[in-house]
Amino acid sequence: MADERGRIGLGIVGAGMGARPHALALNALKDEIAVRGVYRRDRQAREAFCAEHGFPPAQSLEELLSDPQIDAILVLTPPNAREQIVKAAAQAGKHILMEKPVERTTAAAERIVAACEASGVTLGVVFQHRFRAASRALELAMKERRFGSLQAVHLVVPWWRAQQGYYDQPGRGTLAQDGGGVLITQAIHSLDLMLSLTGPVREVTALAATTELHRMETEDFVAGGLAFENGAAGALMATTANYPGGPESLTLNFDKASATLAAGTLTVSWLDGRRESIGEPSEGGGGADPMAFPFDWHKALIADFIDAIRTGRQPLSNGRTALEVHWLIDALLSSAREGGRVAVGR
Question: What is the CATH architecture of 130-292+324-343?
């Protein structure tokens, strides 16, 4: 139900570290979206966030779900607090945009997606790397088959997270709160971007480890081989143990050219010697500051979600596309445990 200005009403649940780029994006989209309430259990933090960004506070989740002028809920809580919230919102008929991952386990993620589909509400998932200008330029070029057939894929996420100030925070790097380590918490963005361009992975072989640089329950280093359903071969390396941290990069090798996405820039190297570049570089969150990136990617993703609600289509990043990443992560970690090739389940 749009307001008198035709804006979609939005409620926000959760307002921690990851909420700032969303708030900046929402204020940039204020002609399309009216933020009608923000709920966070910590009252002082909630009021400070609302005062900073000009949003009205809400006293409870129930207050947001019972507001007839709220069409959608933006869920920014940690994944361990998410399933009950999303199911309640879906039952209340609210569309849902939620931070990654969908949940800590694939089983819970599948339940969330099924609940939204059963309630007939739109489900979007925040994988903003798809919305970088360079990513979209590469996607278009691939659709037009400018580079020929995809032959090989190389993904590197060489990030750094310090023990002090990051992993020392309660719950960080645990199965109970995060659901896993570097794959589901950091590299998941790059994995989603890769799959959006390459299509699904058929099977994997992987090694996972926790280095002595960190004291944590889950993995901070993963290397793997990938066999894609379209026949391409691939390799990945993801870590939060690479001080001081560097930009993630995705290289796709085609018949006619190689295309590399690195921290927001697309570089195309043609086999005939030509070279071109698209986009602007950004830090990308690979260093000690996990929020060192602009908010325009969030703005584009939220705008796509709102358009999906209005037109009745699926958002570009939705529950079903997000499950592909969960299945891939499960297969990588299963291979690392079992020591052999593992098929990616669906």
Answer: 2-Layer Sandwich (3.30)
